[in-house]
Amino acid sequence: MSLFNSILEKLGIRKAAASEAPDAGQAPTPTSSSPAATIAVVDVVTKLEGLAASSPEKLNWKVSIVDLLKLLGLDSSITARKELATELGCPAQAMADSAQMNIWLHKTVLQKLAQNGGNIPQELLN
User: Fold this and answer.
1) What is the pLDDT of residues 23-35, one digit of tens each?
2) Which helix (H) or strand (E) covers residue 75, if one does?
């Protein structure tokens, strides 16, 4: 499983989307005529804030990809972050500088969460 898929799963985005999607053999109904109509919205902010509140560490997931990964119980090592950055198409220039890569990776992960049904506030996407 890809690292990004692990993030989606930890946040319940994959499960929510799967439970909302019609069966493969089922004909689309007027209310579910396209896959886009079946994307369930997941309250990512509430989930992450709840995890942060119960964490013994003070983790700032809103600005740090390392803290976001730690909060989700995923590997936050530089190796794992490089793998995630490669998976998500990080530009080579950003990959060469870990600080730039981390900034790019955090922004991209939040954007992709939003694209997959996560309710990410606009101020975190800019």
Assistant:
1) 434 444 444 444 4
2) none
